[in-house]
């Protein structure tokens, strides 16, 4: 029997990609109910319809995880609606821009950190008391392959994902020290087949009111065709397998595992190798 059976689970960023796949996989593994949220309402409504069509008990609400007050209200609403919350999947996120640190502006960092880091902090702080109260809680925060390997032109994204890793491991150490009934897992996906690269390109150019350059289009195409390969359903399966086995860290994809090994074995050389790889990919 699945360890997820009978649980009430919350998934942010559930309107597409890994979040949508997680919501479907949780239903398939017998979760009692799933609360889903996303900032894009049409996507959210579509996924809610899909899940209800499978007979699942669903709570769906538009949510901007960067909005602290909104996340606090959402946590109260979900807990009141179901009476208990067992698991939180802090999955919502966006890609960073493709600018170097010399070319980036504050807005590049503010947007990515607000969603990818503060979104995780908001969700954790607001839901953690409910996870403790459940007596059988589990917190799952999504970092990235870039939570242990930095790459050129991903300054804001790497900053957020490194921080998510450190934050999550801090929470885990506290739960262990204080013997709280909450397990904690940090997830490091590699290249998963989602719209993250396309959405990042569109947001950056729309914000600046211009057409994407040939180099930007080529970079997005490279990610979509060569690097983002693992199907989201497979990523969700790997994540939930790790959750059921109570793994503190889950690496999703062979690329995530390879990069983790590289950083462990060659910590001083890893930045040079990342720079060399980026040059070759750009060419």
Order of helices and strands: EHEHEHEHEHEHHHEHH
Shape: globular
Give the integer mean of the pLDDT values.
90
CATH topology: Rossmann fold
The CATH architecture can be given as 3-Layer(aba) Sandwich
Structure in words:
The protein has helices at 17-28, 41-53, 68-82, 106-134, 155-177, 196-208, 214-227, 232-244, 254-265, 270-282; strands at residues 8-11, 33-38, 57-62, 87-90, 137-142, 182-189, 249-252. With 283 residues, it is α/β, with parallel strands linked by helices. A 7-stranded parallel sheet has the order 3-2-1-4-5-6-7, sandwiched between helices. Helix 4 (106-134) links the parallel strand 4 (87-90) and strand 5. The mean pLDDT is 90.
Task: Describe the structure in brief.
The protein has 283 residues and is of the alpha/beta class. It contains ten helices and seven strands. β2 (33-38), α2 and β3 form a beta-alpha-beta unit.
Which properties best describe this structure?
283 residues; seven-stranded parallel sheet; 10 helices; Rossmann fold; alpha/beta
Break the fold down into its secondary structure elements and pairings.
Blueprint: E1 8-11, H1 17-28, E2 33-38, H2 41-53, E3 57-62, H3 68-82, E4 87-90, H4 106-134, E5 137-142, H5 155-177, E6 182-189, H6 196-208, H7 214-227, H8 232-244, E7 249-252, H9 254-265, H10 270-282
Parallel strand pairs: 1-2, 1-4, 2-3, 4-5, 5-6, 6-7
Helix pairs in contact: 1-8, 3-4, 4-5
